[in-house]
Design goal:
Helix content is 66%, strand content 2%. A hairpin with a 4-residue loop joins strand 1 and strand 2. Helix 6 runs antiparallel to helix 10. The radius of gyration is 21 Å and the shape is globular. Bound molecules: Phenylacetyl coenzyme A (FAQ). Phenylacetyl coenzyme A (FAQ) binds next to helix 2, helix 6 and helix 9.
Length: 316
């Protein structure tokens, strides 16, 4: 079949909501777009462990420590499913690690901000996992099978993370004035970076149109950001916390909340590597990779030994 015919057949399949699987024919640009998005997503999960990992040793109680360890471990699991999904498209894991460690790969801007108080753990759960769910639930219907299937479990776990964050904030908001102030301060710092997680405005998003046509994305960046705002305003009322945007206002005509201008200079500055923690995050990832070399070597040696024993008929 000619390339144009193959492309038409491919698009018909996508339009008919038939999943694309690794061995199916796909346009080279579809494959590249998916590798880009899934690997960036995987890196975000892995780097995303660092800001919260910072509080495991200082969680205020055993219960909070157990919850936080479990959450951070979940993020590691998400990274691993996503690296596996990306590998089905023909890129290997080592290449993806090299891209992350060298600073060439992108990961979510949000993880370049510091966690300076315990309330930040509540804010990350509520806002960052909340934004992640808003963006990721539609990815369960992504046209590419392995990515869509990985997202089902990821979303279930993110939903638990969002609730634990909300509950941390609720506890603080029911506490002393100092605890309330700590929670408010965390929201003041995390609100705008969370809004930026959805990516540039639709006018400024070079990938959205094609990704929507291929049903990789089901909603645009601005549509998801608006859904997030609408949900958060009501939840903030329940918490009794203030969202730091004087322009937040219900718009009867649109049936949505209006919100203030996002600082896109800050966003691009962070994406380009100049956020408060970019250098620290990359340094930590590189050290972890180097310190883990012996584990990778040991695992390889073990698997080679087992394969040799199996070949010699010594193990089942
Ligand atoms: N940060 O044309 P678009 C989580 C880049 S996981 C950095 O709109 P697209 C779980 C974008 O890559 C959070 N870069 O691109 C958790 C592109 O650059 P490129 C991560 C960003 O792909 C919680 C350029 O700007 N989630 O939080 C960002 O159509 C708590 C132009 O943008 C995912 O990755 C950003 N915020 O839409 C873990 C979900 N936004 O590649 C631990 C999957 C945009 O052309 C603790 N990804 N850029 O050089 C997606 O849904 C999409 O890739 C978007 C961006 C929506 C992020």
């Amino acid at each position: 079949m000619k390339e144009a015919d193959l492309e038409k057949k491919f698009q018909d399949k996508v339009d008919a909501e038939i999943r694309i699987e690794p061995r199916d024919w796909m346009p080279e640009k579809y494959r590249k777009t998916l590798i880009r998005q899934i690997s960036q997503h995987a890196h975000s999960e892995i780097v995303g462990m660092l800001p919260e990992g910072n509080w495991i040793s200082r969680a205020p109680s055993l219960k909070r420590k157990v919850g936080l360890i479990a959450k951070v471990q979940d993020e590691a699991g998400h990274g691993l499913y996503l690296y596996s999904a990306a590998e089905t498209l023909g890129i290997d894991r080592d290449t993806m690690f090299q891209q992350l460690n060298s600073g060439k790969a992108k990961y979510s801007s949000i993880f370049n901000y510091p966690t300076i108080s315990w309330a930040d753990i509540g804010a990350i759960g509520w806002l960052v996992d909340g934004a992640a769910i808003m963006n990721q639930v539609p990815l369960c219907r992504c046209s590419y099978g392995p990515y869509a299937r990985a997202m089902v479990r990821v979303c279930k776990e993110e939903s638990f993370h969002q609730r634990q964050g909300f509950e941390i904030l609720m506890t603080l908001m029911n506490g002393s004035q100092e605890q309330k102030d700590m929670a408010q301060n965390a929201i003041d710092r995390w609100w705008w970076p969370s809004m930026m997680m959805f990516g540039p405005t639709d006018d400024d998003s070079p990938n959205t149109v094609q990704s929507m046509k291929w049903k990789i994305k089901r909603y645009t960046n601005d549509e998801l950001r608006q859904k997030f705002v609408d949900v958060c305003v009501d939840q903030a009322k329940v918490l009794g916390i203030n969202l730091p945007d004087p322009d937040l206002k219900w718009n009867e005509e649109r049936g949505h909340y209006d919100f203030g201008a996002i600082n896109w200079d800050e966003f691009w500055n962070v994406v380009k590597g100049n956020g408060p923690c970019n250098k620290q995050r990359l340094k930590t990832r590189n050290e972890a990779y180097d310190n883990g070399a012996w584990v990778r070597e040991a695992a390889m040696a073990y698997s080679e030994k087992r394969a040799a024993r199996k070949a010699a008929g010594k193990v089942a």
